[in-house]
Design a protein that fits this description.
This protein is mostly helical and 217 residues long. It has ten helices and three strands. The radius of gyration is 17 Å and the shape is globular.
Length: 217
């Protein structure tokens, strides 16, 4: 991935709990932590090389998002991944994505536009390099900036776990051409937001969800 774009996207300050969350979330999304397996806190501290407190906080957040299940005296179960559930995730996500896209087009500031452009550049670079992990990282930050630009924290909090589940399904169900299609759909949405066209932005959000539906079984 282009290092200039990456440095623009990377947060300058991040708590230990946020770092642990980001690492564990990536391992779940990319199936390094396999669906249905049970791990313990020690395993996660070893994998992240972080202490128990930030890992515990990260696990609590991931459990709230439905990516983990805390089982007292048993361990921490990684959520199962049933491809048939992807459509349910997208059904729940579509409406709130339109709200966020419309809000971002109306209220987004120049700083948001800069970060969205950087996200588009990072996605394009990842597509060219066939860098799936780089693309997922850029997509994660795109979703974060989208929520900030929309100035609707309620919609952003509702969308966040659905976006994370979508990335996990996308990683599992991607096929040849998926990087190019996904990058193109995101770039079209970003362009509509930056040109401050709320109706077009909402429609591009629907098209993005429509593309994701083509991957669902």
């Amino acid at each position: 991935m282009d290092q200039t774009a990456l440095s623009t996207l990377t947060p300058t300050a991040e708590s230990l709990a946020d770092m642990a969350y980001r690492q564990i979330e990536e391992m779940i999304i990319t199936l390094k932590l396999e669906p249905g397996t049970v791990v313990n806190e020690r395993t996660l501290t070893d994998l992240t090389r972080m202490g128990r407190t930030p890992v515990r906080e990260a696990v609590q957040k991931l459990a709230w998002e439905g990516l983990m299940e805390i089982r007292p005296r048993s361990g921490i179960a990684i959520a199962a991944l049933n491809p048939q559930d992807f459509t349910k995730v997208l059904d729940a996500r579509e409406g709130v994505e339109r709200v966020l896209a419309r809000g971002a087009a109306r209220y987004g500031a120049s700083l948001h536009h800069e970060r969205l452009k950087a996200a588009a550049d990072a996605m394009t670079a990842a597509r060219s390099a066939n860098d799936v992990i780089g693309f997922l990282n850029a997509d994660k930050i795109f979703d974060t900036v989208l929520g900030q630009a929309a100035e609707n924290p309620y919609a952003a909090r509702l969308a966040s776990p659905l976006q994370t589940h979508s990335r996990r399904f996308w990683f599992r169900l991607q096929r040849p051409g998926s990087l190019e299609q996904s990058a193109g759909a995101h770039t079209a949405l970003i362009d509509a937001i930056i040109t401050r066209d709320p109706d077009k932005a909402a429609d591009e959000a629907t098209r993005l969800i429509g593309y994701l539906r083509t991957l669902a079984p």
